[in-house]
Structure formats: structure tokens, C-alpha cells
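Priority: medium. Attachment 1 of 2:
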């Protein structure tokens, strides 16, 4: 296999876990509103199996997708898990019957969440657990997360979790968590058009900590930009492949977990490593963030 295939490899710092830089995010497998079973269970199995067969060995999930059902689908499709597959899950929220997303951060809730993930995924120990701070929805909010990180560190000492990451956090929260335990990855909202974390990414890159953007394609409303389409047309790729290739070029510590419920989109996304962007094209694509900032203000 070419060393560049699926974007090359990355080892989570201080761990024996090595993954290809292009993985897969499972959130899109749940029903509408990330609630209920997949619309088409066979298609969900096909997406998961093809991702793994193609070499994607980093799957992002959560027991609050479905809720519970997405983890069960992963287990049904892939268990017993192939050697080298890293499943990353997250804790910190719950889904009441009104389908909202509520914080769930007491020691009891976090502990129960670990056991739910273990049971639904069919694992004895979770590879990596991100503490997902609910903050301001898809954006972080300052405030201490020490109590929750201590609970996860304790569950790690008990052998239920191998490694800890953070999601939807500020640089201060990362620094606070690092005084309690080793942090191997940060998962925040970031893409070509949404670049609030530029400084954080550079800082984490220096420390060898993975940065895993959620909404790498723009999330529920995928990115649209005349510049993106123009570059895609010029390079014979799709706009989504350019968006992913830009992330791969942006920093070596960026790992991709694009989400899709479609095998065709999965194939497209997994092939994004084949797109090479020149420094001039990177500058051109960097302009998309300025266009979006003008629209936001
Ligand atoms: N930590 C957190 O708080 C958090 C929050 C959100 C997500 N996540 C994780 O991050 C992963 C990625 O985020 P995401 O799935 O929300 O958003 P995303 O990857 O940015 O985009 C997913 C959307 O893009 C569409 N799409 C995917 N590939 C495409 C392609 N090649 N062409 C056209 N459309 C395409 C999908 O629809 P189709 O299904 O039709 O392809 C879906 O609507 C999630 O799956 C989840 O694991 C974490």
C-alpha cells in the first residue's frame, strides 16, 4: 500500500494507536435529526464495511447518536473488530425523548456512559473517549472541565478507557485538562469556512496532539462556495474532495472523519488523499474563510 494512501498514517501521541489520516464519522448513520435507526440499515452496514475494507481504521461515534443505535449498528456491521481499528467515542450529553441534546456530566452519568458504550460497541475497554463539552452547542464556551476530566481519568485508571480526548473545547480547557491527564486528541468544529481554531491547531501540532475537525464538510449543510467549485473543476475533483484535501494539507496533525450515509460519497471522501494542492491553490482556498467571515458579520 502506498504510504500516502488514505492520507498517510498518524499515531495518537503516547499511544500504540496508529490510524490513517482519513477515517469515517458515524453520526450520519442515525435517522433524521441523529435520532432513531438508519433509514436504510443495509446501506449503513455497507458504508461501514466498505470504509474498513478500504483502509479507514478510525471510526468516530457516540452513544448519543440514535441514541445507542449507531453504536449497535457499528457492532453488528463490524464485530469482531479487525486488528488495528480504532473506534473513538464521546461522553457528556444525553438525548431525552424530545430529541434535544442535554449535558450529562455528573460522575454517575459519565460512568454509566462508559458502560453503555462498552456494551453497545461490544468492547472490554474503549480506545479513546472524548469528553464533549456542551458549551454553546457547536462552539465552545469557557469554564472549568476539571471535575469531568478527573472522572474520565479515574475510569482510565480502572482500565475501562485507554486514552482521553476533548471535544468542543477552548485552548484554556485543553491546558486545564492536561494538568489532570494526557490528552491525545481534540475534536472541534473546523473546516475551510469556519476557522476559529487556527491558533489551537498550530499549538496542538507542535505538541503532536491530533486535531479532528467535526463538520469537516460543513456538517448538516455541506460547504458551498464558488471558489471551492472553481478549484474542484480545475483539478478534476469534487468540491467535497477539495475541502478534505485542504484539511489534510492544512496541518499534519489533522485527522478526518467525514460523515456520510452513502457509499458513493464515502468512496469520494476516502479518495481525497489523491488530490494535491499547490501552495497557490491553498492561498486561493484560504480566501473562502474571509468570504464566510464577511457573510457572518
Ligand atoms: N464532537 C462533536 O460534537 C461532533 C459534532 C458533529 C459531528 N461529529 C462527528 O464528526 C463527523 C463528521 O461530521 P458530520 O458528519 O456531522 O458532517 P460533515 O462530515 O461535515 O458532513 C456530512 C454531510 O455531508 C454530506 N456528505 C458527505 N460526503 C459527501 C460528499 N462526498 N458529497 C456530498 N455530500 C456529502 C452528508 O450527506 P450524505 O449522508 O448524503 O452523504 C452529510 O449531510 C460526524 O459523523 C461525527 O462522527 C462530532
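Attachment 2 of 2:
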Amino acid at each position: 500500500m502506498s504510504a500516502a494512501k488514505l492520507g498517510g498514517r498518524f499515531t495518537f501521541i503516547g499511544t500504540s494507536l496508529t490510524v490513517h489520516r482519513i477515517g469515517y464519522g458515524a453520526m450520519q448513520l442515525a435517522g433524521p435529526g441523529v435520532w432513531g435507526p438508519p433509514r436504510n440499515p443495509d446501506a449503513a452496514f455497507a458504508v461501514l464495511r466498505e470504509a474498513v475494507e478500504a483502509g479507514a481504521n478510525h471510526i468516530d461515534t457516540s452513544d448519543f447518536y440514535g441514541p445507542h443505535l449507531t453504536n449497535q449498528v457499528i457492532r453488528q456491521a463490524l464485530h469482531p473488530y479487525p486488528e488495528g481499528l480504532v473506534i473513538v467515542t464521546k461522553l457528556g450529553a444525553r438525548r431525552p425523548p424530545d430529541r434535544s441534546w442535554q449535558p450529562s456530566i455528573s460522575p454517575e452519568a459519565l460512568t454509566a456512559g462508559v458502560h453503555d458504550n462498552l456494551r453497545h460497541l461490544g468492547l472490554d475497554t474503549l480506545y479513546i473517549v472524548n469528553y464533549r463539552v456542551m458549551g454553546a452547542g457547536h462552539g465552545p464556551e469557557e469554564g472549568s472541565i476539571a471535575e469531568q476530566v478527573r472522572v474520565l481519568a479515574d475510569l482510565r485508571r480502572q482500565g475501562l478507557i485507554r486514552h482521553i480526548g476533548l471535544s468542543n473545547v477552548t485552548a484554556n480547557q485543553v491546558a486545564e485538562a492536561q494538568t489532570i491527564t494526557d490528552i491525545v486528541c481534540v475534536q472541534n468544529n473546523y473546516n475551510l469556512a469556519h476557522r476559529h481554531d487556527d491558533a489551537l491547531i498550530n499549538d496542538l501540532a507542535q505538541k503532536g496532539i491530533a486535531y479532528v475537525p467535526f463538520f469537516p464538510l460543513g456538517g448538516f449543510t455541506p460547504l458551498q462556495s464558488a471558489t471551492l467549485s472553481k478549484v474542484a473543476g480545475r483539478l478534476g475533483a469534487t468540491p467535497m474532495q477539495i475541502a478534505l484535501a485542504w484539511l489534510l494539507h492544512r496541518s499534519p496533525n489533522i485527522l478526518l472523519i467525514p460523515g456520510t450515509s452513502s457509499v458513493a460519497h464515502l468512496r469520494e471522501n476516502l479518495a481525497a488523499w489523491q488530490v494535491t494542492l499547490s501552495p497557490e491553490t491553498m492561498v486561493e482556498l484560504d480566501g473562502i474563510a474571509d468570504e464566510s467571515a464577511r457573510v457572518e458579520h
